Amino acid sequence: MKRRWQLKDLKKVAKKNAKAKRAFTKNLRTGSDASSPILPNAKGVMSGYRPDIVDCKPIKNPKGLFLRSQWEANYARYLMYLMSKGLIQRWEYEPDTFWFENIMRGTRSYLPDFKIWETLDTEPYYVEVKGYMDPKSATKLKRMAKYHPAIRIELVDRKAYMEIKNKLSSIIPNWENPT
Question: Where are the domains of the chain?
Answer without folding.
Answer: 40-168
